[in-house]
Amino acid sequence: MAGKSPLSVVILTKNEAARIAACLDTVQWADDILVVDDESADETIRVAESLGARVVRRKMDVEGRHRNWAYAQAAHEWVLSLDADERVTPELAQELQRLLSQAQPPYETYAIPRRNYIGDRWIRYGGWYPSAQLKLFKKSVFRWEETTVHPRALSDRAWGVLQHDLIHHSYRDRDDFIQKQDRHTTLEAQKWLMDDRRVTVGKAVWRTIDRFVRSYVLKQGFRDGGVGLWVAWMAANYQWQSYRKYLTLKASEQTTTPREPRALVAAKED
């Protein structure tokens, strides 16, 4: 296909010098490649600029808000949202180019199936595949919930699903998985506290067991062998560790000045 596609590829980075080049190499067919960098201390910016990316710098505050700000900087209406650990396969690239060559594609948002990896192991079961996510959209009709952990996509439009996969090198290895889960469970606990969510030990135990059964049995994680068992265990552990950290935060809060109820705070702001 002659020329480049009228698409902005938006990639969020922080200290991704080791992985950003492989990501950028797979999207050189796009007209606008934008890297939004969160104060990297390595060579991320230099590498990105050397491969033709447009780089802007912004410190991440709230993940959803940061993503929405990044998309607003896109040169084109159509945006493909990527992380540095994701790769567009040649088959997916061709599918995207064909879609965007249409005068009016059938949908304004599209989910893309992802192959998620731990190291060099593709996790096929346990809910990890196809794990389609809304990655391609018109920026005028799409935004993320402005929250710190696992923000939800907010769009009132029907969406399509593309046929070909995006490669996602989710975790370098199991140690990387554990470190990221530790960070995410801390953010999850903070979110529960800020939302004034009442989480009981019974609910925490139920969710812990439920996540294991879902991953290992209902979503057939056992078909991935030993790694499938480990992934199911970590899915369960996520719930329990979030609860444990929530209890610690709640106990710490009760020893300091109590927060005013949300309704009262809102009334004062009005």
At a glance:
The protein is α/β, with parallel strands linked by helices and 270 residues long. It has helices spanning 20-25, 44-50, 63-72, 90-100, 174-194, 201-218, 226-254, 262-269; strands spanning 5-13, 30-37, 54-57, 78-83, 86-88, 109-112, 114-118, 121-122, 133-138, 143-144, 153-154, 160-161, 166-171. The chain folds into two domains: 5-171, Spore Coat Polysaccharide Biosynthesis Protein SpsA, Chain A (Alpha-Beta Complex), CATH 3.90.550.10; 174-254.
Description:
This protein is an alpha/beta fold and 270 residues long. The protein has two domains: 5-171, Alpha-Beta Complex (Spore Coat Polysaccharide Biosynthesis Protein SpsA, Chain A); 174-254. The protein is 41% helix and 22% strand. It contains eight helices and 13 strands. The protein has helices at residues 20-25, 44-50, 63-72, 90-100, 174-194, 201-218, 226-254, 262-269; strands spanning 5-13, 30-37, 54-57, 78-83, 86-88, 109-112, 114-118, 121-122, 133-138, 143-144, 153-154, 160-161, 166-171. The termini are far apart.
**Euclidean distance between termini CA atoms:** 55 Å
Overall helicity: 40-55%
Count of domains: 2
> Could you tell me the radius of gyration in angstroms?
20 Å
**Name of the level-1 CATH class of the largest domain:** Alpha Beta
**CATH architecture descriptor of the largest domain:** Alpha-Beta Complex
In N-to-C order, the SSE pattern is: EHEHEHEEHEEEEEEEEHHHH
Strand content: 15-25%
Q: Enter the CATH topology name of the largest domain.
A: Spore Coat Polysaccharide Biosynthesis Protein SpsA, Chain A
CATH fourth-tier homologous superfamily of the largest domain = Spore Coat Polysaccharide Biosynthesis Protein SpsA, Chain A
Number of strands: 13
The count of helical stretches stands at 8
Mean pLDDT: 92
Mind summarizing the main beta sheet? 7 strands, mixed
Shape call: globular
Structural class: alpha/beta
Give the strand line-up of the largest sheet.
3-2-1-4-9-6-12
Uncertain segments of ≥5 residues (pLDDT<50)?
261-270
